[in-house]
Specification:
This protein is α/β, with parallel strands linked by helices. The chain contains 15 helices and 23 strands. Helix 3 (72-88) packs antiparallel against helix 5, helix 4 packs antiparallel against helix 7 (189-205) and helix 5 runs parallel beside helix 6 (164-175). The structure holds 2-aminohexanedioic acid (UN1). 2-aminohexanedioic acid is lined by residues 114, 160-161, 239, 295-297, 459-461.
């Protein structure tokens, strides 16, 4: 057995159902986790049946009754220790993430670092679940608002950040007094099992009740619409495609549940004539090619001023040429571009390239499978640079692959309009040294995205900010800033310490 798997306590066959420290028998189908690197099996996960899910949901409900009464800073102390456990396992977990989903090892480490960062953040937050006090219009009355835990938080995560999304939801949810049921992507169940193993000692040492941090690896045909329809779960946080998000949020909405949606992005970088081009090119390449274009925040469109267009395209071609020398096994130190997660993803990539050509675009670089003739499978591609127009149907869509559409603009107003003229609204960036342009871009008439950056790229957001976007991205916010408020219920309290009973608005109601 591989040493990393051993250290992460992953066996050849693993249960995918856990209530914290206890692994329950999983009676559903086997899910063989296969690495996109070489198409080889890593290990097997037994998925949950509905009955298995039911035992977890019950445990979670019981645990909530205990956990909500633990003082928030004590909940924070547990999260602090989880952060320590993650620090101690950073290399191994980063390696497994890279192995199971194909991002380069450096990015695997970065993902675990995000988990550690959000733990630190959540520890502080555990002492800052503050409400406001308000002045009452009535004499000897006091008003304030306070935040209480919600209950069970359902968490559906995607393959591309198989563990960090768990952390920035669960760590905040946990300090807020909630319990979590996590359904990981069926492409990355082992990373989820490793996380549960890493935290289990901490839970045990701190007598955290079973049912606070739950995992249910399940097929979507077993646990899908019925999961989000479960009335015992007041809040769902869902990361995935816009199509799936729309369907699931309709089910949650129909029962007036809450949801935090992190769906598709179609993120643009505007490069203006005053931009520092060296910086712009570097961050565009990282944004477009990093994680093989499989981040929600990946740079998908480049909006370039016509006066520097040729220059930017030339520089990009040179950069892509050198990055393309480093396509390969993401666990090797020099690799910059790993495989796409599946053969389907490669098909989507090739389909988009065909479509954009049909619609009038011109491929300037890449856009082909990489070294597929020498293997029995095809997971690697050469990142593509494509001259295109914003209105092309395929440019309006999110293709989860390394394709960068390059678009020309004349005026800054036009550039901003192009930035906004897509259904999605997650991340965006401008490279400029002109303050009039950057301020316009950040104003109410500027970028309509949840994230708008100046002189840094679209991907690689820090955990301290609220993460999420508008329009087809779903409107959710998670991670930092005041996102914690989504994980709590707000209560407004008015206290009368007089012996009178004055009514609000000076109303009289004598009898
Ligand atoms: C995602 O792609 O689902 O900004 C999240 C970033 C990361 C998060 C990406 N911090 O790229």
């Amino acid at each position: 057995m591989n040493e990393v798997l051993k250290r992460l306590n992953i066996d050849k066959v693993n249960s995918g159902v856990c209530t914290g420290t206890r692994w329950l028998p999983a009676n559903g189908k086997e899910n063989v986790s296969v690495s996109p690197i070489d198409n080889e099996e890593i290990a097997v996960v037994r998925t949950a049946t509905l009955k298995d899910y039911e035992s977890v949901a019950q445990k979670a409900g019981e645990a909530f009754k205990i956990w909500r009464e633990v003082p928030a800073p004590q909940r924070g102390e547990v999260v602090r220790q989880i952060g320590e456990a993650l620090r101690n396992n950073k290399q191994d977990l980063g390696y497994l993430v890279s192995w199971e989903m194909g991002k380069i090892y450096q990015e695997g480490l970065g993902e675990v670092q995000e988990m550690i960062d959000i733990c630190d953040y959540a520890v502080g937050q555990s002492r800052l679940l503050n409400g406001f006090t308000m002045h009452s219009e009535r004499k000897k009355h006091r008003m304030y608002d306070q935040y209480h835990p919600l209950g069970i938080v359902g968490l559906i995560t995607s393959f591309n950040f198989p563990v960090a999304v768990w952390a920035w939801n669960s760590m905040i949810a946990a300090v807020c007094g909630n319990v979590v049921i996590w359904k990981p992507s069926s492409k990355t169940p082992l990373a989820a099992i490793a996380v549960q193993n890493i935290i289990s000692d901490v839970l045990h040492k701190n007598d955290v009740p079973e049912g606070v941090f739950n995992l249910v690896a399940a097929q979507s045909s077993v646990l899908g619409d019925n999961f989000v329809g479960d009335k015992r779960i007041p809040l769902f946080s869902i990361t995935g495609s816009t199509a799936v998000g729309k369907r699931l949020s309709a089910i949650i909405g129909a029962r007036l549940g809450k949801s935090i949606l992190e769906l598709g992005g179609n993120n643009a970088v505007i490069v203006t004539p005053s931009a520092n081009l060296e910086m712009a090119i570097k961050s565009v390449v990282f944004g477009a090619v990093g994680t093989a274009g499989q981040r929600c925040t990946s740079t998908r469109r480049l909006i370039v001023h016509e006066s520097i267009y040729d220059q930017v395209v030339e520089k990009l071609k040179i950069a892509y040429e050198s990055v393309s020398q480093k396509i390969g096994n993401p666990l090797h130190k020099d690799t910059l571009v790993g495989p796409l997660v599946s053969e389907n993803a490669v098909e989507d990539f090739l389909h988009a390239i065909k479509q954009v050509q049909k619609q009038g675009g011109e491929v300037l670089y890449g856009g082909t499978p990489y070294d597929c003739e020498n293997r029995s499978f095809c997971h690697y591609v050469v990142p593509a640079l494509v001259e295109a127009e914003n209105h092309y149907e395929i440019v309006q869509e999110e293709t989860f692959a390394p394709i960068l559409y390059i678009i020309k603009y004349k005026t800054i107003e036009e550039a901003i309009a192009l930035n906004n003229d897509v259904p999605q609204g997650l991340s965006s960036a401008i490279f400029t040294q002109n303050m009039l342009e950057s301020e316009l871009y950040l104003s109410e008439t500027g970028s309509d995205c949840g994230i708008a950056n100046v002189n840094i790229g679209t991907s690689g957001a820090e955990i301290g900010g609220a993460f999420g976007g508008e329009k087809d991205t779903g409107g959710g916010r998670e991670s930092g800033s005041d996102s914690w408020k989504y994980y709590m219920r707000r209560q407004t309290n008015t206290i009368n310490y007089s012996t009178d009973l004055p009514l609000a608005q000076g109303l009289r109601f004598g009898f």
